[in-house]
Write a structure and sequence with these properties.
Strand order of the largest sheet: 3-2-1-4-7-6-8-5
Radius of gyration: 20 Å
Number of domains: 2
CATH superfamily of the largest domain: Spore Coat Polysaccharide Biosynthesis Protein SpsA, Chain A
Number of strands: 8
Distance between the termini: 50 Å
Helix content: 40-55%
Oligomer: single chain
Strand content: 15-25%
Shape: globular
Length: about 325
Amino acid sequence: MEEKPLVSIVVSVYNHARYIEECLRGIAAQTVDFPIEVLVADDCSPDGTADVLRALEPELPNTFTLILREQNLGAVKNGEDLYARATGKYLVDLEGDDFWTYEGKLQAQVEFLEGNPEYSAVYTRCTVVGADSKPNGEEYPQCSHDEYTFKDYFYSCLPGQSGTLVCRREQYVSMREEFMGMRTYEFYPGDRRNAFLFLVAGKVRCIQENWSAYRHVTSGGSSYSSTVALDDAYALNEVRFGETLVAYAQLRGDEEAVKAAKKTYYRTYLKWACDGRSSLKLGACLRELMGERNRLSYLASPVQWYAVLGTRMLMGKPVDL
């Protein structure tokens, strides 16, 4: 009988013909002493990605399963299908245009989680690269210390880029399903949701080693950052995302999480209520805020946020707005 995989690596692919070989070879190069499964799904890319995968298949280990969709499902459904197929204790979700740069990455992260059950996730640092796979001079807004906190979350610092993450699969899938079932927004970056979920679930480790490459192509790319428009729809989604954070934290009964969620919610609500691109009204925001016990702290949240991030920018540190 084949051993059940300890780690499931899911790779969502769309229009990654130029990049997918580098991604998969980085996975295949990992040196591990446990069984893994690698599930790769091309979502009917029109750029010839499926042909690249067919050509690569004979060279890939038998731990790789290639799924070449004949109809486009969309990014969300493509990812959901991969999650449903995964069976490992631990989960890795890697985009087809990102890649790993250190062959011991997976082993080190899994060993850490195996030995530290109080941690819900472990990330590493990453290098930001362009279309040519070379560093493009950008710095990712990643945590610069070993332990990620709610304070980091409020100030828009992420524990790491999504492709660096290893987490406990069943715990994550359950949390994610519960959170998404409560959401009042339509779409918002999943990495910000995940960072909050992992903090509510336990401790989050940030390994201070650059073991991964995040490809950031803002011109002609299909990533969220290259296509997002800062308009009324975005404003409503951001505020409603904060609203969902609050509801989830209250459900979990975590006082620190509730405070961080409310500071995030009111920071975005106040910001957009004062922005002419948004239909949100300042009066409605202030009336709601006045019902809060910690109203002064929440009222000051935009000032705190802009002051800290402004200082970071002046110091040349990466900032994710």
